[in-house]
Design brief:
Order of helices and strands: HEEHE
Strand content: 25-35%
Radius of gyration: 14 Å
Helix content: 25-40%
Shape: elongated
Structural class: alpha+beta
Distance between the termini: 20 Å
Length: 103
């Protein structure tokens, strides 16, 4: 994607795909993409599984998303804010939650 302009939807898609690869992340939803000619800021909401460290997951998502978005788009990633909305409990919550929700 480097070399051609990208829009907020492209950046959101890249971010969601990257965050979904982090172990312990069950669901990822982009909340906001702030995009200009040279940089981007992202807000993501995630749901994780009980037993995983929430701070570790948030920091790993932040790092993985910043690396992937920067490498794929050529933009400087100014910020990635990660909000953990819920914690799923194995055996209580649905065991096969989708990797993304809401598009």
């Amino acid at each position: 994607m480097t070399g051609r302009p990208c829009d907020a939807a492209d950046v959101a898609r890249i971010a969601v795909q990257a965050a979904g690869l982090v172990p312990g992340v069950s669901v990822v939803r982009p909340a906001a993409v702030r995009l200009d000619d040279r940089s981007v800021g992202l807000d993501l909401h995630v749901i994780t599984w009980y037993g995983h460290s929430v701070p570790t997951i948030a920091e790993t998502v932040r790092a993985v998303v910043a690396d992937r978005v920067g490498a794929t788009t050529g933009l400087r990633v100014a910020a990635v804010t990660v909000t953990v909305d819920d914690l799923l409990v194995p055996g209580v919550d649905v065991s096969a939650a989708p990797a993304t929700w809401g598009g």
